[in-house]
Each structure stands twice: as structure tokens, then as C-alpha cells.
Hints:
flat; 4 helices
Amino acid sequence: MVLRRKQRKQRRESTTNFNCNRSIAADATGVKLTRYPTGLASALKKIKHESLTQEDKHRFPKAVAPLFISDPFKKKFINLFSTHPSIDDRISKLERM
């Protein structure tokens, strides 16, 4: 039983690392293709700041969150369980390129 829990945890961690690495690799490929990391960082900033109003949040169920590029319902402390790097992390990495 303990072994199963440990295996599930390891699987979850490897999936999280894989998804984070894919997001970072996708950003790096975007920079390589466009040769314009500032533009990509600017686009991510716009996506980050484009959020739902409180009225919209009440109108839409949380089930529609995957349809957005940036989760409009996301709480700050949930980043511990996130499978993808935060937009802030991606922006900072792009700005360092």
C-alpha cells in the first residue's frame, strides 16, 4: 500500500516535470523561430492581465477554465499542484533570453 502511494507520487511528479519542461521548450522554440523574446514575453503579459471580471466569474462555471490560456479562476496557492509553469515564470525566463 505504501509502495503504491509512492509510485503514484513519483508518476505525478514526473508528469509535472515533463509538462513544465515542454512549456519551457515551446517558449524556447518560439524565441528561436521569431528571434524576438521581448514580443513573446509581451504577449504572455497581455494574456496574464486579460482576466474575467467578477461578474463573468459568476456567469461561467469553473469547468470552462481549461478553455482559457491563463486560468481565470486560479488561486495563488494552487501553484503547488500546477502541472505547468506559471505565466510569471515563463515571462521571467523569456526576459532572460
